[in-house]
Structure formats: C-alpha cells, structure tokens
Amino acid sequence: MTSAHNPAPSSTRGVKLKRHVGPIGLLFAAIGSIIGSGWLFGAYNASIIAGPVAIFSWLIAGLMIMLIGLCYAELGPMFPISGGVIRFPHFAWGSFASYSLGFITWIATAAVPAIEVEGTLTYATRYAPLTTRETANGVTVHVLTPLGIVVAVILLALFVVLNYFGVRLFAQINNVLVWWKLFVIILVIVVFLITAFATVNMGTTANFTSHGFAPNGWAAVFTCISTAGITFSYLGFRQGIELAGETTNPKRNIPLAIIGSIGITAIIYALLQIAFTMAIPGGVLAKSGSWAGLVFTNDAGPLAALATLGGLAWLAYILYFDAIISPLDTGFIYTTIGARVSYAMGRNGNSPRFLSVNNKHGVPHWSLLVTFVVGVILLLPFPSWQQLVGFITSATVLSFGSGPIVVALMRRQFPNRHRPFKLPGGDLIPWLAFYSANMIIFWAGWDTNYKLFITILIGYVALVIFELTGKLRKPALDFKVGAAWVIPYLVAMTLFSWLMDPNTHPALFGWAFLVNIVITGGIFILAVRVHLPKAQMEAYMADSEGESEDDALEQSHLAGDAII
After folding, report:
1. CATH of the domain at 355
2. pTM to 2 decimal places
C-alpha cells in the first residue's frame, strides 16, 4: 500500500527482520535485560529510603509491572512485530498518538545503555578514576570524570558494532551472559544469608527491627518503587515485545518471556533485599544511626563494599567483575531495543523513513547509529546513575501505559480477532495496569517528572519541524484522534505530579490514590471511545501483517539456524 495511511512502502524495508530467537532465547533476552545495573544499586538505595520494609517495594513493583506485562502478553501474539510498544498505539489512534508515546519511549530506551555504562564505571572506580563523588541537595552521586565519559562513549560504540551483525549473534552472546548473571545474583543471596547467621562480623534478623522496620513510614514503600531503581530493575520485560517479530513461535514465546521474566526476577529481587538487610554488620548500622544515614567505606559499589566488610573478599571481586558483565549485557540488549523502537517509528511514518531500512544482516543499522548518538548526548546532562534512573523509569512507564488501553480498545473493535493469549476478567487487569503506571509516574516526584514533560515538549517541537519539511512523504498525522486523549492525559499527569508532589506535599500522599482513580478512569474511558475509523485501523494492521508474513516466508530457510 502506498496511501497516506500506509506507514511505509515495501521498498523502504530492505532486508526483513529475521526469526532467529527461540523460546528460551526470548525468555533469557528478557531476564538478561531486567538484570542489569538495578540490582547492584537497588537494594542499597531502597534500604536508605524505606529501611527493611523495602522488601514490599520490590514485591509491589513486581506485581504492578506484571499487570502491565500481562496486557502486552495479549497484544504481542496478536501482532508479532518488532517495536510493538510503538506500533500498537499507531493501530489504535494513528501517527500523533504513536509519536507522542514513541518519542519518549525512544529517548528512555536510548538512555538505558548510557545508564548501564554509568553503573559499570561507578563500580570500576575502585580501579581507575572513572567517576568522582559529588553532593547535591544532600544526595551523594558518583559523576563521570572526563576519562569516564571517554570510556563510556567507547563502550556505547561497542554495543553498536556487536548489534550490527544481527540478532542471532546477540542471542548467542546473551544466553551465556544471562546464565552468568543469574549465577552471581543467586550466589550473593545465598552467601549473604549464610554468613549473616554464621559470621560475627555480619548482621542477623535483628537488623529488621533494631532501627525500625518502617522508619520512614509506609509512604516510603511506594516512593521507593520509583526512586530507588526498583521499577527500573523490572523494565527489561519489554524485550519479549520488541523482538516479537524475530521469535520462532510468538503464541508460546511472548507470554512465556513476559510473565516468566517478571515472576523469576521478582522472587530473586525480594530475596536479595532480605539478604542485604541481614548481611549489614550491626556496628555499621549503629554507626550510621539510621537506615537513611547508611554508608559504606566504598559506597560506589555497595554490594561489593558489604561483601568486603563481611570478610568475603572473593565475593567482592566477583561482584566487581559482574558489575562489568551485567550492566554491559543489559546495555547491549537495550541498544538492540532502541534500534527497534526507532525502526518502528520509521515504519509508522512519523520519523524519517531511513530508520526502518535494514542491512544485509536484518538489522536496522541507521537506527542503531541514531540510538548511539542519543545515548552519548544523554551522558552530558545525566552524568551519573542516580541522576538518570528516575527519568528513565517515569518515561518508560508512561509509554507502557498505553498498552492496557489498546487491549481494551481492540477487544471492542476486533472481538473475533485471533488471540493466542487472552487475559481473563474483561477490563479489570487493563484498568489496574493503567492505574499502576500512573502511580509509578506520580511516585517519582515533580523534580523528576518536570524534566520528563519538558522532554515531551521538545519532542513536539521536533514533530512540527518534521511535518513542515515538505520534501518528505509523510502519512496523515491523525491529530484530532490522537490528541483527543493524549493531550488531556499529559496535562492531567502534569498537574497531578505538580500539585500533589509527594516530596513537597506529604500530607496529600494518601489522597493521591483516590485522585488517580479519577484520572485513570476518565482517560481510560476517553481513549477507548476515541479511536481511528475501523477501516483505517485495519489498513495499519494489514501493513504490519504484511511485514510479519514476509518475515515468516524466510522461516523455512532459517529453521536450521534457530538458536534454541
């Protein structure tokens, strides 16, 4: 199709995305993407904010992300295409809505390789002056030095080179690294728990009560979800969606990857928080005076520092090594995802078409290059892990929030469409998932969210420039449909975050749960009722199905090359 409503002619597609990823490969891609730098910092940050009660932060966040993931588990097999997070809103509301959500998704995704590199270099500061400690507003962060920035750029470039040679190489490397990452995190949990009971230098279960189980109240349990890196530590589940067009059996593999990866890592993270709490020497906690004042001699690498305090030098060295492997693997994966997101925006037609062109390896190489450039740029305003994590969390969850609404809309518009995986309970899970996304954004606080909303405004300026470039062929913007709910949603979330900021208005914290019911319910109903004409939705879907069918034709030639 070449009409105004067709995202891209087949001539622009180049070599098709290849189905090289099997069930375990896709599950491991998601787990490998989830287990990155978050666990290396999350338990420590969560303890400072909430104390021992932070274990509930991990479990609640896992449940909330699971609700969102379940919605994508239904959408993914229905539309097994790469860049699904961006493509699904395009089917429902057209170019403006998909651009609005896609731009911020792309920025957040491109930022992940940067933050993972920052996490690696923070731990590596033990061996070279890659970061330096700075204090701003009472918060200590580890900021990249000039040498650190140079090394970071080199690592980001390495991600691009490895990804250039195709998703099959990526999966082969990742499967090995995920086994390593699982081994290390489980090893840390087991060793910390054993030594907490057997070694006098380590803590015990007394740490759960000696300085208060919930020293900062239960409100800290929720703010911790967004600000300690907890939600960030789960966001890799999206890998099962972004590589949907490159997996051998979407019906089976996508739900397995999403549900399996979140469930497995939620259990692991909760156990890690328990082990971390118990392993802190009582003398260290007493000297700190409170959980909020908890510090280690070398807090650039808190888990390694804790291992050293317990006389576990061998474990500390493993952690320092893993601080290189785990974040870099996740950064490698997210470079893949970032390229798929910009690929999807190119296919949607609301960004330059060349982004959807693939090389001979079936990889969108121009998208890889642009993702690299954005990642390098983001190192400058956010030169530390702590400064970037909240922004990525809010931005990513904001874009995920549209998925549950798409589920509800598609059930109404296409009730007979084949759904290999369908959620029970009607609109209940999609509504709860949208509610969860909005609460996670709110808990991040206004100081983080105002930067997010400014970034969205910058994206709209870029869209205006793109639309005014007359030489480029572009599809219909579908502005009236997309803006009818996207703009009210963004305005509502801006006011919600500003007027009820949990940091400046703690007395309103409980009321935020009720206010969000109104926002979630109103936007949910509006977005389901305002959508593209059914014929136009079908046209967008037909184009994506054509892409998937073309990819499927290659399956018979590639079956012998499947990874798993």
Report:
1. 1.20.1740.10
2. 0.84
